[in-house]
Amino acid sequence: MYRVLQRQEVRYGHFKEFVELIAEVNALLHDRGWAQFKLWTPTVGKGNEIVLETEYPDLAIFARESESFSSDPELMKVWRRGAELVVQGSLVSEMLEPAPDLA
């Protein structure tokens, strides 16, 4: 299992709009049978930060869905609207995997 986290700061006054945009993106992802975003926000910490979480069973599915996402005109049209809602340069992405069971 692989978990992708995308942290970003939403511009003040646009949080609700960003959440609605992700709901629209998730509807398109659902229609395509792809992993959908779970939305998280820190209980304490940086203000207006939001974390998008997705899970993939393996790296091949992550790669396939990432490539398909980027080449889907309808999905990218919606996704690009998010650029107006986040603080430029605030996005940080990370991928997590289960910790190994070492000998």
What does this structure look like?
It is a single chain. By secondary structure, the protein is an alpha+beta fold. It has a single domain (2-93), classed as Alpha-Beta Plaits. 37% of the residues lie in helices and 23% in strands. The protein has a four-stranded antiparallel beta sheet. The radius of gyration is 15 Å and the shape is globular. The two termini are 21 Å apart.
Tags for this model:
3 helices; 4 strands; alpha+beta; four-stranded antiparallel beta sheet; 103 residues; globular; Alpha-Beta Plaits
- Beta-strand residue fraction: 15-25%
Overall geometric form: globular
Radius of gyration: 15 Å
Q: Compute the number of structural domains.
A: 1
Helix fraction, binned, reads 25-40%
Q: CATH architecture, please?
A: 2-Layer Sandwich
The average pLDDT score comes to 96
Please list the strands of the largest sheet in the order they lie side by side: 2-3-1-4
Which CATH C-level class is it? Alpha Beta
By DSSP, the count of extended strands is 4
Cα(first) to Cα(last) distance is 21 Å
Secondary-structure element order, N to C: EHEEHHE
Individual helix count: 3
- Poorly predicted runs: none
Structural class: alpha+beta
User: What summary fits the major beta sheet?
Assistant: 4 strands, antiparallel
